[in-house]
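Quarterly update from the structural biology core.
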Amino acid sequence: MSIAYQIVVCAGIVPDPLQTLEPITSPAGPALKNEMMLPAVLDPWAGHALYEAANLAKNTPGSKVWLVSLGPKAKLQQVMMTVAQKVPFELVALDGPASGFTEAAEVAAALAEAIQTIPGLDKSKLLVFGGWESASRGAGATMQMVGERLGIVDQFQGVDELKVNADGSLEILERIEGGKHQVSKCAGPPALLGWATGNLPEPKNNPQVGMTNMRTVMPALQKAKPTKLAGEGLTFASVALPKQLRETRVVKDKSPDEIAKEIVEWIKQ
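Predicted structure, tokenized:
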């Protein structure tokens, strides 16, 4: 039995990991120094979710992928110029903050509201994908709250693989403790999947896909709904980069066993 899925991918944007990030305290609260000047990329976990969604839609005739993203409109446009060349999707943009200092519950509420406004949304065909974690704020709770707000009770986190069985049921490989996986089964949509790394490589750039996507991306950015996250009740005592510790000694005439023993003792401390 084949079903045409409606796949909604929740994906944030984050500063390019090759950049040096310096936290500061701004009048509005914690922020990153020169944040608007930093080049941005699609969150890596969300990227896996998007590529898995596109692969599922490609192999299931009639399926469609939406990308719902909350971030500064200018930054979203910058990221979409690259992401749009990867896989086909329709963008639903929200113009708001994308920093790691936002509250997960507020982000989830904004994303869920945006998903509910998608024209022709049918929950009997709905699959919501997203990152299990995030490169900006590893709260690990945003996608769960999105699912709760949408009334989706079948949720799977740490997903590495999704298979659609002949009867339409879903077989899902989830990460669990001890470096193991568990196989979960779901009768079908609606369901929410928080992806880990998945099994697919990053797709190559396809200019034709990019041109098709940009026809809807630019109008979506122009009408992006302004979204303000109040952050009520959220406070930070301090923000700072992790301190680097480097202890170097130059020692001669020591055997490998002695060096190894010293290193182990240092690690134990």
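The chain has one domain: 6-226.
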